[in-house]
Amino acid sequence: MTIFGEFKISGNELVATETGAAIPLTREFARDAWRIASFVWLINGVRAVRRVRGREPRARISFFPRKPRSYYAIWPVCQLADVKIVDDPEEADLHFYFEDCEFLTAPRLAPSAKPAFNVGCFDIRKSVVARIFEETFGYALGVDPSAHHGMLVEKSESNGKHDGRLVEGPIASPKPGHVYQRNIENTFDGAEHVDIRTPVVGGRTTPFVFLKRRARDLRFTNDNHRVDLAATDAMLSRDEQEKIAAFARAMRLDFGGLDILRDRNDGRIYIVDANKTDMGPPSAMRAQDKLTAMRALADAFAAMVDGALAK
Prior knowledge:
alpha+beta, 4-stranded antiparallel β-sheet, 17 strands, 28% helix, 28% strand
């Protein structure tokens, strides 16, 4: 069965037709789906109030090759930033490249010469993320599995698989289509693994990050038992934020999300994933925290839109 043309039900899983990412159809999934729907209704309510008050859009934007659904982060951001999503590129003031595809051999052409976001971000494979990370931060995430002695992480090159696992190196025959990375002890207390999900807008960090908390046996999944909103300045130093901005520029990522891990052994951060079609906000967050985070992203997005139109 196909849902919205983007997902299909296969057995007891919901599978994304573009990426192949699979989500188990469990009670937890139903709970998260309800939370997402509730937040969408909240945003629609905010938008309705603004319409009644006669608030005009600051700009019109078209997405290509397809529009984002309401469960993607850019959708509530556009609503809160007063940026109207239009179907016809001719009516748009700006364009936004939006496609759940981690690799193209060349960027897609924007519908016109008007300002366009994320157009240059057409290769977000994990090997590329690791290479750009090393070039901008000066230390490595990736390892040579045939020479590395000790534990390392093996995961698919493609995004959304959540199939990471610990393996013992050296490995005589690395798996095709997989990458090998250092084992990062991203725990604050030695037990609970914490991903620092870091939104990027205008190629820079925003005021807030999401702390995605997982039990040790679920560290490589997307099953968060809690997600907290935290001030970016409290979690990332100014120098780290500048390097993150340099990484985003090198990736040509105008709007998206980064998965960042801090290793409790060496204190350093590691960018392990970059997403240009970020879903969000995380369903496990409190509703008020979701709205606070999306308003901050919307303010940054509005500034990016205004800046692009002023050039």
